[in-house]
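[audit] Reproducing an earlier prediction to check determinism. Same input, same settings, fresh worker. If the tokens differ from the archived copy the diff job will pick it up downstream; this log only records the rerun itself.
[audit] input (179 residues):
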Amino acid sequence: MRDQLKVIATQQIRHKTLAAASFRELGKAAGIKSSSVHYHFKSRDALLLELVKDYHRDFFADLSQRCSEISSPRQRLSTLADVFCDSHAKQMQCLCQAYAAGIDSLNDEHRQASQAFFDELQHWVSDTLANARLLALPRDELAKVVVSALEGSLLLDRGEQEQQRLQATKAWLTTLSSL
């Protein structure tokens, strides 16, 4: 039941907002009383921290698996964009994006865990750009722009059928340099 509650909470946050992960809503979605949710999680804060750590681990495991046979920076960035496109196709936002949007309701531990995800994503992009040539910006700065473009495109395309901004961002990624 604990894992099922985590899946439900992650889906609710990614489909809606951080506020959608109340114990009452989780209990309702799982068909149990909210007091039963408390049995599995000490507090909502504990649940939210566990969710962001799980999301971080699972996101990079998926990305690593997708890119395991890819060495081209252009193809690796395109694959990263595909991860965001897949989220859009499921009408889901990045979990850490939802945390960033609800930053005022998070404690320092949640903020740090969420920021750790973005930092690792920027580091992954920067490492991917290490073999690229003719970059317009230093690769660490460009990595911040790439992550911001992907996260922003996912946010702005949310609720729309088409992935106009995500597809434009994906196309832009292929023009960065001679990757």
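[audit] rerun output stored. Observation attached for the diff report: The chain is about 70% helix and 0% strand.
[audit] end
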